[in-house]
Amino acid sequence: MQWYTRISRFGDIHMVYGQKWANSCGLASTVMCAFKTNKFAFGQQAVYEEQKIKDEYSKVNGSAYDPVTQYTFSDKLAKVLKTVTGKDWVDECPSDADQVATILANVDSYSALSIGPTTSSKCCLLLADWGNGAHWVVVDSVRTLGGYHWATICDPWDTNLHIVRMTKGQAVVYDAGDVVAGVDIGSSGSQASGAKVESGLLHRASTYSNKGVITWIIHPA
Questions:
Q1: pLDDT tens readout for residues 105-121
Q2: Please, which residues bridge with residue 197 across strands?
């Protein structure tokens, strides 16, 4: 629907894309992963329209995909990611004990004491289980200090950054209602998803409060 430039409390910059349809979080997260993966890759297209990702998903699906009434599935999203990045992607459901290790193996990690922009091009899709539904988001960097790791989540529903603390050996819990104050460069308005998007130099926007454990991870092979 629209891109937003978000700046986290660590001073790094993240491009967040807002989903166009009610159930297109998987498509929007694929748009973000394609951009983050391809932005430094010579000759690779980095910016895709969500409609293009929808068309590619329909091909993999074997029939037209309706992002208003249907969900997206990890194995098919992994195939779409291969099409748009030229790389193999793996979808897996790691045990609670292995979730953090899987994320750390596939996303660049930086010291939580270092402040400023990074040049990471690695990311993963994460599926949070709400209990009465699920939601795809993107993790594109991790800050580490001691035994703790803080993952930066780019959420296509509210177009915000969410910082999630992770501990090795424990399941990752995504709390969408836990939003810290951040800086953004982007337009205000409402997403087609129904989520209100706040803008302004400093904001603390939280338009929904779902909370759930990460169940599936899609990452580069």
A1: 999 888 766 766 667 78
A2: 189
